[in-house]
Write a structure and sequence with these properties.
- The chain is mainly alpha-helical and 270 residues long.
- The protein has twelve helices and no strands.
- It has one domain.
- Helix 4 runs parallel beside helix 7 and helix 7 packs parallel to helix 12.
Length: 270
């Protein structure tokens, strides 16, 4: 345990003195919180505009009511998960660009220790974002008129953990590309190309029972689209829980990415 802490502590020192990281993290956190707190007013405006033009009345959707708030906010927060992935890309590729990884290995840091520190940083980032989303949901829910306190602690609270796993899977994929490609620019391009285009093509072409095993597809499935009064009006219903199969697939990919990263670090000339 002491050896692990000694490996992680220098990583924290580097991050704590890296102004760019804190600026980007602050912008991401502010954007996330503002978006989540504005979600109800955004949906209400859309509902009013649609009702003014449609003969079929669209019911309002209480975003912050317990226990649905946990699924609603984690689903929306999932659209911003690309930004923490960019932070991971910057932090890891900088180690290759400025040759700090080579210097660390020369001074006694093992490659396993380097990987452990980076994974610990990714896990910590996932947990911090999940806590931020949970805090936002709790505050927004308590600010509603007559909140049902008995529903705060419900099975839907597990969507917070599902969102943390979603972020972890996404960032481990970013870490894998960062170690493989070593340069921030090319890593960002490949990351965007795969996440926005290639995997969507694969998902469209492959049968559903196969496409669900794609890494980012599995991560995106952890928090399904919330049920709403509009969907129920048309007889459409979505899942109210996280599938254990998608959870297992994500953990499987995290293990794969970890093993491949370690293999690359062992075989590559730094």
């Amino acid at each position: 345990m002491k050896k692990i802490l000694l490996t992680i502590y220098p990583e924290w020192i580097k991050i704590s003195n890296y102004r760019t990281f804190w600026i980007l993290s602050g912008l991401y956190a502010a954007t996330l919180v503002i978006l989540l707190f504005s979600l109800q007013s955004i949906l209400d405006n859309i509902t009013v505009n649609v009702n003014n033009k449609s003969p079929l009345p669209i019911p309002s959707f209480p975003v912050y009511a317990f226990p649905g708030v946990w699924q609603n906010l984690t689903y929306i927060a999932g659209f911003l998960k690309m930004f923490p992935a960019f932070l991971v890309i910057i932090l890891i590729t900088n180690e290759f660009t400025f040759r700090t990884l080579k210097q660390q290995v020369i001074t006694g840091t093992s490659r396993l220790g380097f990987m452990t520190a980076k994974i610990a940083m990714i896990i910590a980032l996932s947990l911090v974002v999940a806590v931020l989303v949970a805090s936002t949901g709790l505050i927004a829910g308590l600010l509603q008129k007559s909140p049902d306190y008995n529903l705060i602690l419900s099975p839907k609270l597990l969507f917070i953990a599902a969102h943390a796993l979603e972020l972890l899977t996404y960032m481990m994929f970013a870490a894998f590309l960062s170690v493989l490609l070593k340069r921030a620019g090319i890593t960002v391009i490949v990351f965007l190309l795969y996440s926005l285009i290639l995997e969507r093509i694969f998902s469209f072409k492959l049968p559903d029972n196969i496409s669900r095993f794609l890494p980012l597809e599995a991560a995106g499935n952890l928090v399904p689209l919330p049920n709403s009064s509009l969907m129920k009006l048309f007889g459409i219903s979505f899942s109210d829980y996280t599938s254990w199969q998608d959870t297992a697939i994500c953990f499987g990919w995290i293990v794969v990415f970890t093993l491949v990263i370690y293999r690359i670090l062992l075989k590559r000339d730094l």
